[in-house]
């Protein structure tokens, strides 16, 4: 059973918009819910299927109309609350796990939080055998000594195992390694798993090149700390 099949796309899903993309499928994030409208959203979600969709504001000036309904980017990540703690004053601490990419098709009038009808945003995942060469390249880059001192790469290495499908690995690695909001959102909005795999390879290669250049500049040695695979 796929993650998408466990989500009821026939009914509107609550939207929790933030300034940037903070969640991708398969990853987990911690959220502290303090606004009253989002406390109500969490309470309603806990009484139903525990799903909320993490959305992204479209306009960089979203703060100017925050109390209204600032426009949203079309792609969202539907997450499921897998752990919650309600604090004495009504706030919540949540652990939210990403379940599926989706696109907003229609928002519906609703108070005090926003809801929308969504549709799945994912093409069929390629077979692992078809991604074998790409997976080997990703593993090779993650083990590259030039990236070994980066905490984000070490974190991905620690959770890496051969049983993790490549499409899942890409989302987990991207959320951990990539700090660029626009790049994260582009990956969320990309429905083709094969193209997401290519993106991660390119990102890791670019990151490695940046590390090599930084070491060259800091040491003055054009051959410093270079291990090319």
From TrEMBL:
GO molecular function: serine-type endopeptidase activity
InterPro entries given in the database record: Lon_prtase_N, Lon_prtase_N_sf, PUA-like_sf
Keyword Hydrolase: yes
Top-level taxon: Bacteria
Residue ranges of every copy of the Lon N-terminal domain listed in the record: 13-208
Signal peptide, first to last residue: none
Residues forming coiled coils: none
Keyword Hydrolase: yes
SMART domains recorded: LON
Keywords: Hydrolase, Protease
Biological processes per GO annotation: proteolysis
EC number of this enzyme: 3.4.21.53
Name the record gives this protein: Lon protease 2
């Amino acid at each position: 059973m796929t993650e998408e099949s466990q989500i009821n796309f026939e009914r509107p899903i609550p939207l929790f918009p933030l300034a940037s993309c903070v969640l991708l499928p398969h990853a987990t994030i911690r959220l502290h819910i303090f606004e009253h409208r989002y406390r109500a959203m969490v309470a309603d979600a806990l009484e139903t299927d525990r799903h909320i969709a993490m959305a992204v504001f479209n306009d960089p000036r979203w703060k100017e109309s925050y109390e209204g309904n600032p426009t949203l980017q079309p792609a969202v990540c539907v997450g499921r609350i897998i752990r919650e703690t309600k604090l004495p004053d009504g706030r919540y601490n949540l652990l939210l796990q990403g379940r599926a990419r989706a696109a907003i098709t229609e928002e519906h009038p609703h108070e005090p939080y926003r809801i929308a009808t969504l549709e799945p945003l994912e093409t069929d995942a390629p077979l692992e055998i078809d991604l074998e060469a790409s997976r080997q390249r990703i593993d090779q880059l993650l083990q590259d000594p030039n990236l070994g001192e980066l905490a984000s790469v070490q974190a991905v290495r620690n959770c890496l195992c051969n049983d993790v499908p490549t499409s899942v690995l890409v989302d987990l690695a991207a959320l951990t390694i990539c700090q660029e909001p626009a790049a994260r959102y582009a990956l969320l909005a990309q429905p083709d798993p094969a193209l997401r795999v290519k993106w991660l390879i390119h990102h890791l290669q670019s990151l490695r090149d940046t590390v090599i250049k930084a070491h060259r500049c800091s040491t003055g040695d054009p051959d410093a700390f270079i291990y090319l695979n």
